[in-house]
Input
Amino acid sequence: MTKKIFIVYGHYDQNSFNAAIKDTFIKTVEKKGYKVDLIDLYKDKFDPVFSGEEPDEKVLQHRKKIEDSAVIVLIAPIWNFRMPAIVEGWIDKVLAPPWAFRFKKLFGNYGYPIGNLKGKKAIVFCTYGSPQFAVRTFFLNMPTKRLRRGVFNICGIKEVIYRRYFAVPFVEESKREKFLKDVENTANKI
Output
């Protein structure tokens, strides 16, 4: 059986470094025999606004793709210490309870989440305009912790690989090539 990888891509510019990450990752895993299912949120005009409505057909399709995949991959920049609103809205709509997780009541209003996506793996590729020192020191790795603990771990996904590429607009081409080699190495380790 062919293993599937579900990619959620969240950058509006097809000539961006995020697009290079996406293309490198896909090329590498397809060589290894994986089937890739790519969702380009901007190209698909995904509506990120959640107003309490029941999941629409697109959300249900994305959930089915996750169910059919062994690995979920997010590729997006970090803007203002979070992913773009379109990706954050995707998380809110697709990785929502009771489908992705549910709460087990302890007592009163207290409970804890039980993830429904156990056994899956997640890989997050993020680009930053900021240097690594600023993100780690002043902002305490906020995006990493929130995505790992506040999204994937709650959904039951414990194996999360987080690859970050800092100061992307300011680095030399040789550094970008090293970043893409890291993407390739990450894909080869799946």
